[in-house]
Design a protein that fits this description.
By secondary structure, the protein is of the alpha+beta class. Helix content is 23%, strand content 36%. It is built from 4 helices and 6 strands; from the N terminus they run αααββαββββ. The protein has a 6-stranded antiparallel beta sheet with strand order 1-2-4-5-6-3, with helices on one face.
């Protein structure tokens, strides 16, 4: 367990990704995950009720040159999982149990923004809606994720 003042092995990663300093204690031991780093996701706001991040289209495209549908889902699941984890609180964790996405519009260049908004923040489940937009504010996709909230040391099954 780390405190908020001792730099951890992932401090540079957290700073680069825009993670607020007050969350470094929570994430400092594990980082944000290799896929989040690889996708270039950068956080702008972080709370259980609303989490916002950007992601570049470049480097995350599919063969036709547009943002990969799976990249949309990676951004959505990242936002929903982080928001649910913050809601779960100390000594607890979030486990994704359902994610769905509808793609409305393609994008071939620029940066997308994902805005995650809580639909339900309960004791055992958290559900969030994530809207991904382009730089002009046009909706590219809509996703929903539900996370089960468990005590640390509790396994699924």
């Amino acid at each position: 367990m780390m405190d908020n003042f001792t730099p951890g092995p992932f401090t540079d990663e957290l700073v680069t990704a825009g993670i607020p300093e007050h969350l470094h204690g929570w994430l400092g031991e594990f980082g944000i995950g290799a896929l989040v780093v690889k996708m270039g996701i950068h956080f702008l706001e972080m709370s259980p009720e609303r989490t916002v991040a950007t992601m570049p289209v470049e480097g995350n495209t599919q063969v036709a040159g547009i943002l990969h549908g799976g990249a949309h889902v990676v951004l959505a699941e990242t936002l929903g999982s982080f928001a649910a984890g913050m809601h779960a609180g100390a000594g607890r964790h979030a486990l994704g149990i359902e994610v769905s996405a509808t793609h409305h519009r393609a994008i071939a260049a620029g940066t997308v923004t994902g805005t995650c908004t809580a639909i339900h923040l309960g004791r055992t489940l958290a559900t969030h809606e994530i809207v991904i937009t382009d730089e002009m504010g046009r909706r590219l996709s809509t996703a929903r994720i539900t996370n089960m909230l468990r005590d640390n040391g509790t396994t699924g099954g």
